[in-house]
C-alpha cells in the first residue's frame, strides 16, 4: 500500500496535477501551505513516501527547513523534490546541498516529473516499510514474550519518566516488587508449562489490581514490578495487601489439577522532601522483597523496616 505524499506550498499548477496523478496511483496526498509544516509533530516520517515542495520564497528559510527535516528521526530517507521557477533551477545546487533529492522547473508536465521521480518514489515506499518494521521490532523488544507485559527494559524507561514527573509536580510515587513463592516446586511437580501458566495468570492478577494509570511489568523469572503514580506509603501498602489477598485466594489452572501459590511483596516510596532517585526506589522495593523472603515469605514488607514495620 503506497504511503503519504505531502505537497507543500502548491502555488505552481503542475503540483496540483502531480497530486491528482499520485492520488490515482493509490497514494494518500495531503496539501499544506508552508514548508515549515514538515517540522511539526503532524508529520510522521514512517508514513511518508515522498515530499514535493513548491519553491517561492526566502532561500535561506527554505534551506533551513530542508536541513532540519533531514535531521529528524526518519527524515534522511524520505525523498524530497522541489518544484519552482527559473530561480529554483538556478539555486538547484543549494537546495540539493540542503537536502533536496531533485529540483524541477514548473514548466514541465506532471508526467515528465513523475517519470523522473518514480525511482525515488519506489525508494520512499521501501524506506517507509523498513522504518515501520524497525519500529515494530523495537516495540517487540520492549514486551515480555510469556506474559505480553512490558519487560525490564520497558519498565526502566517508564520508571525514570515517572519519577521525574513526580519530582516536578511534587507528588509521591511508589514501587511494589513481587515474587511468586516456591514456583520451582510447581515446575518440578506439575511441569514447566504449568509454571509458565501460573506466571501468566499472576501477571493478569496484577493487571486487574492496578489502577488505570499505574504500570506493571515482568522483570524476569517469577518477579514482577508495579509502579504506582501519586501513591504514598500507606496507599502502596494497601494496594500490595489487596493483590496479596487476591493471589492467596486464587486457584491457578494447571494441566491436570488446580494449583495454589503465594507471593511475597516488597514496597518502597519516595515523596517530596526526600531523595528523588529512580534506581533507589526500585532497589529499596527489592530490599523489602528480600526481607520478606528471609522472614518466611507470603508477606508484604515496606522499606525501610523502621518506617514500614508498623504498616507491613
Which descriptors would you attach to this protein?
312 residues; alpha/beta; Rossmann fold; Alpha-Beta Plaits; 2 domains; 5-stranded parallel β-sheet; 5-stranded mixed β-sheet; 12 strands; disordered C terminus
Describe the structure.
By secondary structure, the chain is of the alpha/beta class. It has two domains: about 5-140, Rossmann fold (3-Layer(aba) Sandwich); about 150-310, Alpha-Beta Plaits. Helix content is about 50%, strand content about 20%. The chain has eleven helices and twelve strands. The strands form three sheets. A five-stranded parallel beta sheet has the order 2-1-3-4-5, with helices on both faces. It has a five-stranded mixed beta sheet with strand order 7-8-6-11-12, sandwiched between helices. A hairpin with a 4-residue loop joins strand 9 (about 250-255) and strand 10 (about 260). Helix 1 crosses helix 5 (about 110-140) and helix 8 (about 190-210) crosses helix 9. The longest helix is centred in the middle third of the chain and has 31 residues, at about 110-140. The radius of gyration is 28 Å and the shape is elongated. It starts with a strand and ends with a helix. Residues about 305-310 have low confidence and may be disordered.
Amino acid at each position: 500500500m503506497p504511503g503519504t505524499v505531502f505537497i507543500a506550498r502548491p502555488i505552481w499548477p503542475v503540483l496540483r496535477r502531480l497530486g491528482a496523478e499520485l492520488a490515482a496511483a493509490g497514494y494518500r496526498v495531503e496539501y499544506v501551505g508552508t514548508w515549515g509544516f514538515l517540522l511539526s509533530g503532524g508529520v510522521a516520517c514512517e508514513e511518508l513516501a515522498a515530499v514535493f515542495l513548491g519553491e517561492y520564497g526566502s532561500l535561506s528559510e527554505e534551506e533551513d527547513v530542508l536541513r532540519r527535516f533531514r535531521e529528524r528521526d526518519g527524515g534522511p530517507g524520505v525523498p524530497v523534490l522541489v518544484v519552482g521557477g527559473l530561480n529554483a533551477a538556478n539555486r538547484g545546487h543549494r537546495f540539493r546541498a540542503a537536502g533536496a533529492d531533485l529540483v524541477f522547473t514548473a514548466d514541465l508536465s506532471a508526467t515528465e516529473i513523475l517519470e523522473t521521480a518514480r525511482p525515488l518514489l519506489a525508494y520512499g515506499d521501501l524506506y517507509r516499510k523498513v522504518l515501520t518494521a524497525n519500529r515494530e521490532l523495537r516495540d517487540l523488544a520492549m514486551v515480555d514474550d510469556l506474559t505480553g507485559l512490558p519487560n525490564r527494559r520497558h519498565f526502566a524507561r517508564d520508571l525514570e519518566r515517572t519519577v521525574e514527573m513526580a519530582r516536578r509536580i511534587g507528588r509521591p510515587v511508589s514501587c511494589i516488587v513481587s515474587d511468586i513463592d516456591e514456583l520451582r516446586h510447581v515446575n518440578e511437580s506439575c511441569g514447566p508449562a504449568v509454571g509458565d501458566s501460573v506466571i501468566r495468570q499472576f501477571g493478569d492478577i496484577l493487571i486487574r489490581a492496578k489502577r488505570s494509570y499505574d504500570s506493571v511489568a515482568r522483570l524476569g523469572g517469577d518477579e514482577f514490578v508495579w509502579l504506582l503514580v501519586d501513591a504514598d506509603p500507606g496507599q502502596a501498602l494497601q494496594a500490595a495487601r489487596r493483590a496479596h489477598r487476591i493471589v492467596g485466594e486464587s486457584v491457578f489452572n494447571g494441566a491436570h489439577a488446580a494449583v495454589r501459590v503465594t507471593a511475597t511483596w516488597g514496597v518502597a516510596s519516595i515523596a517530596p522532601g526526600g531523595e528523588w532517585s529512580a534506581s533507589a526506589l526500585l532497589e529499596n522495593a527489592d530490599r523489602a522483597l528480600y526481607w520478606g523472603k528471609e522472614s518466611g515469605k507470603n508477606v508484604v514488607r515496606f522499606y525501610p523496616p523502621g518506617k514500614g514495620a508498623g504498616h507491613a
